[in-house]
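Hi everyone, sorry if this is the wrong subforum. Our group has a chain we'd like a structural model of before ordering constructs, and none of us has done structure prediction before. Sequence below.
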Amino acid sequence: ELEAICNTKDDFIVTKENFPLGSVIQYDAERHSRLNVTNDVWKRFPEESSPFRHMKHSRCSVVGNSGLLKNSNCGKEIDSANFVFRCNMAPIDGDHIAEVGSKTDLITANPTIIRDKYKNLRNHTMKEKFIKDTSVYGKSYIWMTPFAYKMCTSYTFKAQQVLKELKSDNEIIFANPVFMGKINGYWKKKGVKAWRASTGLFLVSAALSMCEEVYLYGFWPWHLDRLGNNLTQHYYDNHPVHKAHKLPDEFKQHQRLHNEGVLHITTNKCP
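Answer:
Right subforum, don't worry. Here is the predicted structure as tokens:
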């Protein structure tokens, strides 16, 4: 069904092929906003067609950040996948490796983190901090959303420029607003009543196209585990989740797909 509404392998990210010079980008959250693809914008896109075009992995892990992962011992199992998706620059160092592993092929970063945590990369200290923080993910893609809201564009472009300037191994790729819009619409029809899908749901949608088997970890929207034990919001902190998302609605969809054998959800500790 997802493949019928969007060609994920080609449309997951913006490329020179799907947004040629002179085309116009419509922002997917701020629908009234547009951006003309000038030469300065176009040169930021990957040269070739999407690197995901020919991707078909036998097993993928998609790692959410729920407190359920704390002391879960799932690190080895997560890392055993051929391709690992992670969300929102979640920590994978030190104590967390046993819980969540460290292998990373793609991680997402919210553009506002560039403003809030890295002070818009305005000086060398902040640039170095950003490079150091992203280097823990090894040679991986950093998936950002410059075309969700107008304000996201400059933060994302700045981050991309700094990674290139300081010769980082990581590559920033841009979420395609057409893909985002179609996926959002699809899940709304399925009963996710949020104004906008969460990053995790976008990644799960992409993984279903790119992988033969999809395993989810750390997707759990409640503050109690199955045994009634208290959980923190995330495995690394207790900050509340964004009001725009409806995680219980999303979890129902994950559960339905699990029951249909389309994907696997891990909600217990790993062996």
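For your construct planning: DSSP finds eleven helices and nine strands in the chain. The first helix runs from residue 2 to 5.
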